[in-house]
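Before relying on records like the one below, remember that each one covers exactly one chain. Contacts with other chains, cofactors or solvent are not represented anywhere in the record.
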Amino acid sequence: MSRPRKVAIIGAGPAGVLAALRLQQFNHISPVIYEIRAEPTTLGGAIGIPSNGLRLLHRLGLWDALRARGAETSTLSVHALKGQVIGEMDMTSWSREKTGFGYLRIRRVDLMEVLHEAARKATIPIHFGKHLTGITEDNQGIAVTFADGTSDNADFLLGCDGIHSMVRKLYVDPGLTPEYSGISNIYSLVPTDQLPSAAASISSLNATLTTDGLLAVSPCRPNGEMVYWFFSRELAMPTSGDTRDGWEERGKEQVETIKSTVLDLIKTSEGEWGQIMKETIRKTETLRFYPVYRLPPNGQWSRGRCLIIGDAAHAMQPHASQGVSMALEDIFMFSNLLEAHPGPLDEVFRIYEQKRRPRVNEMYLLAERNGGIRKKTTPWRLRFNELATSGALGIYNFFGMGKLGLGQKPLAYDVEEDKN
């Protein structure tokens, strides 16, 4: 089989644009991206990218531009409901030493502006308003058709179109459907010039445990001019079932009531941090709600000349901040295997899945475990959790256990150490 020269990519989110940049730079393959939205989206809150993803972004030449738009927030500060800090830890001390990178929190819109500008400079075409309707292939290549009557041909196809992937639904694994995790998030972005002056100096991810979920606040811009906050909680599926109308109604209810709900939960919070939290909630003007879905593990990832990557293949809960990083690892692994194995694509896909599934499953389970602290609990259980967290973090820091890499080894993983 001759080396592939052209790839069609469905999805102009992070996975799609990053895949195009890598395949063009490293494999000298010409990418064309197709996006269902009519224009680049401005939706989304702030994304966390740990060491394993940041190292790969640096290799793509994107780190400096992203660092200039985001906030490095490697420290976790855990607060009791009363407001006081009960423990702190550097989440990336060991992995930073191994990789040279910590943890970046960046608005999704800033991330996408950097990626689309990189694609523009690389003259990678992105076609918007393209609703995928069909995929066919033969021995010569693969063809995609769109609702507007246009079509395209390529040597292979990448589905980078997220958890609700049309590539997966139409072609790769039509029977696999997303499932609700039981956790939902409310989030917002708030300029710090509307908050107490101390808010502009927040430099870490600040988490507060409550009886009804996890409240977290983090900077997401380099000079502290904006904070991202979210409230992540256990929430039952709508009584009408897993339907769009049901979730739209549930989301409307949550947006209307969540500010008063959270303010009631933190009403006993005192001191400077208590004031910052309360003012952040009060000054919030626009709230977004989204139920957290995931894909059941071990679905099919490829068919013929088509491969799905990132959330299209293995969407996991966001509680390990690995969405962008997992997509990057997928991209680099696949790119390297294309160079190392110039044979049939189905053999490259087979080796790719064999190598990627253990790592993806590891992070999938980690994200699921981290979701446990979002579940409802009693006041007594919350107090026990606060004491346990304080004790565990105290021991962790006193004995310098971060130097052993506990909890950080997955963040130092380098997908390029496994190239063949």
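DSSP finds twelve helices and 19 strands in the chain.
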